Amino acid sequence: MLSIENLVCRIGDRTIVDDISISFQPGRLHVIVGPNGSGKSTFLKAFSGEWTPAAGHVTYDGVGLSKFDRIDLARRRAVMTQLPELHFPLSVDEIVMMGRYPHFSFRPSARDRDVCRHVKRLLSIDELGERDYLTLSGGERQRVQFARALAQVWETPHDGARYLFLDEPVSSLDIHYQHQFLRLARSLVKENIVLIAVLHDLNLSLQYADRMVFMKHGRVVAEGARDIVTAELVHRVFDVEARLLADPEGGRPVIVFA
Amino acid sequence: MKRIPFHIYYLVFGLLLLLSLIVSARVGAVSIGYDHIIVFLRHALTGTPGSSIEEQLFLQIRLPRVLLCALTGASLSVAGALMQALFRNPIVEPGLVGTSSGAALGAAFVFVMGKSLSGAWVDALGPFLLPLAAFVGGGLATWLVYRLSNVFGKVNVNTLLLAGIAVNALAAGGTGFFSYIARDPQARSIVFWHLGTLSGADWTNTGIVAFSTIVGIGLSLRYSRALNALLLGETEAAYLGVNTRQLKTRILLLNTFLVAVATSVVGVISFVGLIVPHILRLLKSSDNRWLIIGSALLGAILLNIADMLARVIVAPSEFPIGVITAFAGAPVFLFLLIRAGRQQQKGGFYA
Questions:
Q1: What pLDDT is stored for residue B348 in this prediction?
Q2: From the list B232, B241, B349, which residue is nearest A73 (CB)?
Q3: Which residue in the set A81, A101, A134 is minimally distant from B225, CB to CB?
Q4: What's the predicted TM-score (pTM) here?
Q5: Mind listing the domains of chain A with CATH numbers?
Q6: A220 FRET partner, CA 20 to 30 A, in A24, A79, B47, B298?
Q7: How far is A109 from chain B (nearest CA, A)?
Q8: What does the alpha-carbon distance between residue B89 and residue B145 come to, in Å, rounded to a whole number?
Q9: Please, are residues A24 and A189 in contact by the beta-carbon 8 Å criterion?
Q10: Could you give the ipTM of this predicted complex?
Q11: What's the rounded Cα separation, in Å, for the pair A55 and A70?
């Protein structure tokens, strides 16, 4: 379990994350939503160990984040960022294998190669192995990066859960790939994995999240299952007039913006 | 070609290196027959040196020169591969980011002012004073260019090129100044510092460069995985467990070590560090382990060929080797720039 207590992040004297206390359990897809500048990305960086907070505590399975050494942390926590820029030709195989870097010191073991083969099949990119990453489409690149993150935390450590954080994973994808990606992410939800995604799209979040966390001005405004979402909440967080409709087939709520 | 396994390439490069060393040892102002070379080498290995002038020339001048050339080529190329990974940009090389010219300035300072420097520490350093001064000069120049061009973890190529020009001009001006005020006719000329020459090779300086090359490349290999991760970006590398701040400092120091020691002996030889990793990337991959091992071998081969040309074209005189590397390297550099301009919208140099 990921526990966050009184987390504060500052840039200069500007407070980006303002005293957040929350916990994330394994076995559910948690989605953080909020307008631009609400502090979502900084919050993610802080609880994934990339940003040193000004105050507060982050613990993974009861152990303080700063207690982990870099490699130990990298073996249990992977982060998929918005598509990284590459300036050199690298094959898909080489990029996926990078996810195994925390697991071997000089040459990949047979196990490392097995894991890579497995995640590539899972994400249907096993055909792309030799292809140059720079020649791939946005959707393919996204799956390659996801494969890398998955390969990194493929095994559950003996003393805790696995942590997989996705920072706006679908913002550069078309509708087809957005749904394909989130369905895949959902299918990963298991007992031993803490899965958190930062998303922009409210309807996508409503469709796939087990739990939604609304952020504004560096604070958590509301959190809970999708039934907490109301027109009033959307207006309060995003400052947009909205109506909630029920999908005629299935009754799932859909947000329509006025 | 991309499917040929790494070890086949290493084998071919190794054989080519051996071949280039032998051919290069043969040609020059005095050409030495292969049968003689074998005899001389056997003498040297068994400790029964002959006394012919040809043998002295081979063992004391030709052989150290050929080895120094190979070592320098390896050092400069590996340093180029390191810098390209650090800056995440294929147009970077030690000559461009100021390492070479900064090192030359440090070395020129010792050459010209060395006699007026005195004290226990100068005596204690002995033959290491020169490479040390080169290291300090090269390190400062590289650090300055890196700091100026790296804004918020992203390298701005325009600033990089401009900062490189400014720092190179400053260092070249300093080197020119020292060459000008040098009264000692033994002091090295401006031509030496700007275009490089291997004619000063002897067993002492070849030994020093051998040390820096072997240690430098050995250490570089330890960072090849971390450098690969860095290709994805600093944040991504950190998520993979890489201590990026420490890595950057160490790579800058390693680059300076490799380049400065070689430069203090042979002067500034540009473009080797640019071309060699570029060829390797086109041949096979951008994996830094391959780039480092491959650069060491291919850099040694190519600089050997360049030096051979330098000695043969105007024999019995010789050309500054930097002229040849510039003629070969500058077009590659221009090609990369044109390509960079075209690829800017697409987001990758090699896309």
A1: 47
A2: B241
A3: A101
A4: 0.88
A5: 2-257 (3.40.50.300)
A6: A79
A7: 15
A8: 14
A9: no
A10: 0.91
A11: 21
